[in-house]
Amino acid sequence: MSPIDYLQFVLAPQVVNGLALGVAVVLVALGLTIIFGMLDVINMSHGEFYAIGAYAALALGAAGIGFWFLLVLVPVLMIPLGMAAERLLIRPVFDTKDRHVTTLLVTFGLGLIVEDVLKVIFGANTQRPPTPIPGASEFFGIILPNYRLFLILVGAAIVLGVAFVVYKTRLGAMVRAAAFDRNMAASLGVPVSLVYAGTFAFGVGLAGLAGVLLAPIYSVFPTMGRDFILLAFTVVIVGGMGSIWGAVVAGLLLTQVQALASLVISPVWTDPIVFGTMVAFLVFRPQGLFGRLGHA
Amino acid sequence: MHDRLTQSMRASHLLALLFVLAALGLAAMGAATGDTFYLRLGTEALIFAGLALSVDLLLGYSGALSLGQALYFGIGAYVSALTLMKAPSFWLAMGAAFLATLVAAVIGGLIANRVRGVYFALITFGLAQVMAKVVYNTRELGASDGMIGIPVIEIGFGPFSVSAGSPVGFFLIVLAIIMGLYALTAYLLDTPFGRVLTALKANEKRVPFLGYSVWRARMAAYVLAGLIAGLSGALYPMLRGFVSPELMFFATSGNAVISVILGGVGTLIGAIYGSVLLVILKSIIGSWTEHHLIVIGALFMACVMFLPKGLVGFVRPSIEGWLSRQPQAAPVPVEPIGLTQAIAKSGSAAS
User: Fold this and answer.
1) Considering only CB atoms, which chain A residues are within 8 Å of B63?
2) ipTM metric
3) Of all helices (H) and strands (E), which one includes residue A107?
4) Cβ atoms of residues A54 and A212 within 8 Å
5) Which among A223, A175, A197, A191 has a CA at the least distance from the CA of A85?
6) DSSP strand E in chain A: where?
């Protein structure tokens, strides 16, 4: 194979596939990092909320609701779920001495329950909704599935939209103020407990949205959240906990490492390489790429 | 003079005694009825209790949540299995597992102890994940199938020997080892070293001002916990005759964390009770439905939220009260001991 052919038929599709996976991971990690950055809470059940989103898309899609409507409907349906989870599980333990560990444990328990409930309702088998955008396009002789291209564009739009809301709007300023100093924000009239519940629910909604978007590519099965959350946590750690841009950069970086390692070395060794990268990062730069260490 | 910590450890020891008596009762019943299933299950519960004990040593005493303690459990199990296949000797297998987990825990500790809190939880998780995947992909170690055909060994004690294939005999040996590990841990935590760990959990920033090295204490706790997990893991292939990469997976570490929370964080004996409780719950609920995770997850969440000291933390205060009313117990009013007092005590004991 000539170098040009290698570039065109092997490397380039792999890089684009890695990019699509990167966008997927960033979408899952985005909610995780927002919940951590704003609430200072670890949500171990985030992967299960992603799975709920995917199953909701599967069930509602089978009931005849179109994909485009689901993109809006499912995240909206996830919001009361997130609000309830925050009210019932996070708020009672929010002021415990070791909040990180306590919330991690509570949400870990929630994840176990959700995983089994999904198994009870939908069965243990892997299912896959039909691809909403079929076909493939050719660019410079490289053939790429349309849905992956769509995913990359939508993912970029969502990340930019979220970053805009958090960093540039009045609502985002209120959320950041509540995160920075709860009491001061409350005395300035910020409805702090509503902001906390809303932020948690927003993160959960993002997980649900990721579920809708990723179901046609990565299939739907009860343990899907657990498989994805590992990578999402890795991304959040490497990027720096609580940093949106960190999650984006780390997500794209790590999935490229994964894609290229699976091409150059072997697909079975990608997980050790990716997690090894995380360990190395934690050793040499514990605060992550864009993180501040004061947080955890 | 007994301070609060000694008092609560004495209550734990009483619970440990009850546990041993109950276990001996099970062994006697098993021997009488010739029932092997429950004895084998009980042995497995005890082995995983060792893993839970190591999680509690870290979480309950130095405040470090390890989500990857199964790493050392798995290393112990694999090294023990490899040794047994080459040379079927119990003591050799335990020794090899000890050395291997010692090396692994020192390396793991050097990496993990650079960070705190959530980062510690996630790095331990990451380390276990890397190692589990490496084992999963290594054909020489049986890859995803694990290794089978580990010989049944005779465990020699001088003139006596007990076969690992004997349900009652091996149950008693495992009981002795796990309770021995409990006793050793409880003893070490009662020394100045243990008081430094307790102080560390209470306020890490103040400990260096008192002249103790935070890093050294954390490292010692980590290595000790690794060794406990490794030695427990070394018993696993002797019981089941096989090892598989699942021993290192997150589910194994997660179960140990659940056991500790159910039983009671920072009580040591709670980890052992919790582990047995988890096995019992799984088999009872498992007989009704295969979806036992719903019940266990709910119980776990309820424990974290409403019973943060777990089952043992719930019953122990009344035992403490009963103990302190006993004439032989020193008539010291039980008063909460602060960090400074704990350190002062350990300091005077050290000097």
Assistant:
1) 98, 101
2) 0.82
3) helix A99-122
4) yes
5) A197
6) 136-139, 142-145
**Separation between Cα atoms, residue B76 and residue A182, nearest integer Å:** 47
- Alpha carbons B292 and A145: distance in angstroms, whole number: 41
Which residue type is seen at A291? G
A104/A90 Cα distance (integer angstroms): 10
Give the Cα separation of A103 and A226 in Å (integer): 17
The A residues from 176 to 235 touching B (CB cutoff 8 Å) are 226, 230, 233-234
Give contacts of A89 with chain B, Cβ < 8 Å: 301, 305
The pair of structure tokens assigned to B191 is 């020394």
Which residue's structure tokens are 């050294």?
B216
CA distances from residue A69 to A64, A82, A179, B67, B114 in whole angstroms, order as listed:
11, 20, 33, 39, 47
CA of B265: which chain A residue's CA is closest? A102
Residue at B299: amino acid letter: L
User: Tens place of pLDDT for every residue, chain B, 351 residues?
Assistant: 466 777 777 888 888 888 888 888 887 888 788 778 888 888 999 999 999 999 999 988 888 889 889 999 999 999 999 998 888 888 888 999 999 999 999 999 988 888 777 888 888 888 888 888 888 888 788 777 888 888 887 777 777 777 777 888 888 889 999 999 999 998 888 888 888 888 877 777 787 888 888 888 889 999 999 999 999 999 999 888 889 988 888 889 989 999 999 988 888 888 999 999 998 888 888 888 778 888 888 889 888 888 888 888 888 878 878 877 765 545 555 454 454 454 444 444 443
DSSP helix/strand/coil, A143: strand
Which of A42, A234, A272 has its CB closest to that of B133? A272
Query: Cα-flanking dihedrals φ and ψ of residue B163, to 5°?
Result: -85, 140
**B19 neighbors B275 (Cβ within 8 angstroms):** no
Is A98 part of the contact surface with chain B (CB cutoff 8 Å)? yes
* Single-letter code of the amino acid located at B327: P
**Which residues, including other chains, have CB under 8 Å from residue B163's CB and lie 6 or more apart?**
B152, B153, B154, B155, B169, B170
Asked if B307 reaches chain A (Cβ–Cβ under 8 Å), the answer is no
Q: Which of A113, A241, A279 sits opposite B111 (nearest CB)?
A: A279
Chain B residues with CB-CB distance to A42 below 8 A: 118
Q: What is the pTM of this model?
A: 0.85
| A104 contacts B65? CB cut-off 8 A | yes
Q: What is the token pair recorded at A286?
A: 């514990």
Q: Which residues of B touch A241 (CB under 8 A)?
A: 118
Burial of B217 (0-12, 13-18, 19+ CB in 10 A): buried
Cα dihedral value A217, A220, A222, A226, nearest 10: 10
Of the candidates A117, A234, A296, which has its C-beta nearest B294's C-beta? A117
* Alpha carbon of B167: minimum distance to chain A alpha carbons (Å): 33
Contact B330, B194 (CB under 8 A): no
Using CB atoms within 10 A of its CB, is residue B149 exposed (0-12), middle (13-18) or buried (19+)? exposed
